Amino acid sequence: ATPTSIMVGTGRAAELGVLFRRGDALQALQGVDVVAFDKTGTLTIGAPVVVSNTLRTQDLAAVAGVEAASDHPLANAIVTLAGRHLPLATEVETIPGHGVQGVVEGRRIVIGNAAMMAWEGVTAQADVPAGQTPVMVAIDGKFAGTLGLSDAPKPTSKATVQAMKARGLEVVMVSGDTQEAAGALGDDLGIDHVIAGVLPDGKVDAVKELQTGGRKVAFVGDGINDAPALAVADVGIAMGTGTDVAVESADVVLVSGNPAGVAHAIEVSRRTLRNIW
Ligand code: ADP
Ligand code: MG
After folding, report:
1. pTM as predicted
2. Is 38 an active-site residue?
3. I need a labelling partner for 132 at 20 to 30 A (CA). Which of 44, 81, 124, 209 fits?
4. Which atom of ligand 1 is nearest to the CA of 78?
5. What is the per-residue pLDDT across 250-274, written as a single tens digit (0 to 9) for each?
6. 87 CA distance to ligand 2 centroid (A)?
7. What family is this (predicted)?
8. Per-residue pLDDT tens digits for 24-51
9. Ligand located closest to 40 CA
10. What separation in angstroms does the CA of 134 have from each of 87, 115, 176, 198?
């Protein structure tokens, strides 16, 4: 591409809310074979709501008391459901990618995924409808109930996935959520391959795996735990609405957090490389 073409391309991209932080990303993007998306906050709005609940009212209050100390999106949803006047939690400890625990009114409250329950030696029922993220609760070593949370996809997610596939790209979703919840969303959006149950520092490995055989991978994410994957990807694309660490690790920033920006970015890169402006 000529310098003029690159200038026009980055300018056109900026008009579409796509900021190129590194010039060579424009070049790298058009050679990409796979686009891997983070789920929460990238393909979904990132503001889950509680849609099912088998906890007793008093237990829900205790759970929300513990979650009040967590800034995880799931925690915000649970605190919102429980309302005001939450009991005070002490000894709160968050376990990234798994859950949170604490003590409320002398009772030990453990909240999170299946691994959390297994460590607690509790047999828990995760049976929430497909597409919901289960959050299970153990109190004093006994199963107390499950919350089901739902996070709506962004309005442009499906069309973006379709546009990527129409260009012959493989579309992948990488998530810390369960296979059931992430898989249901993946089916909705028409995503080729869903990698679920990924630990916070496991997204890098997922990207490296996708790079096998010299395939070029773009990774799109918004969270702190996406930063290493954004850095290791051939092109890292961060949601401008995401955390600063993610933005700083990325080559490209989608200003308004609109996934459609990925399609715009690829289109601009192809045009630029062919000097079609
Ligand atoms: P994601 O990649 O979907 O943002 P995380 O890696 O942050 O997910 O967390 C993975 C899983 O761990 C969640 O789906 C949830 O089951 C559990 N979890 C993590 N933090 C919390 C929390 N504060 N409260 C309840 N569950 C949690
Ligand atoms: Mg995210």
Report:
1. 0.92
2. yes
3. 209
4. 24
5. 999 999 999 999 999 999 999 998 8
6. 29
7. Belongs to the cation transport ATPase (P-type) (TC 3.A.3) family. Type IB subfamily.
8. 899 999 999 999 999 999 999 999 999 9
9. 2
10. 23, 12, 12, 15
Closest Cα to atom 18 of ligand 1: 99
Q: How far apart are CA 110 and CA 113, in angstroms?
A: 10
User: What CATH number should be reported for the domain whose range is 3-45+152-273?
Assistant: 3.40.50.1000
Amino acid, res. 7: M
Nearest CA to ligand 1 atom 12: 98
The protein residue with its alpha carbon nearest to ligand 1, atom 13, reads 177
Q: How far, in Å, from the CA of 184 to the mean position of ligand 1?
A: 17
Strand ranges (E), 161-255: 170-174, 193-195, 217-221, 235-239, 252-254
Ligand nearest to the CA of 198: 1
| DSSP secondary structure string for all residues of 182-205 | HHHHHHHHT-SEEE-S--TT-HHH
Atom of ligand 1 nearest to the CA of 178: 14
Q: Taking residues 84-103, report their average pLDDT.
A: 95
> 247, 233 in Cβ contact below 8 A?
no
Residue 175: CB within 6 Å of ligand 1? yes
Please tell me the distance from the alpha carbon of residue 238 to that of residue 32, in angstroms, as a whole number. 16
HSE-CB for 180 with a 13 A CA cutoff: 14
- pLDDT at site 112: 97
State if residue 42 touches ligand 1 by the CB under 6 angstroms criterion.
no
Q: Which ligand is nearest to the CA of 257?
A: 2
Nearest CA to ligand 1 atom 7: 97
The domain covering 49-150 belongs, at the CATH homologous superfamily level, to Calcium-transporting ATPase, cytoplasmic domain N (3.40.1110.10)
DSSP labels for 134-150? EEEEEETTEEEEEEEEE
CA dihedral 141, 88, 47, 242 (to 10 degrees): -110
- The domain ranges of the chain are 3-45+152-273, 49-150
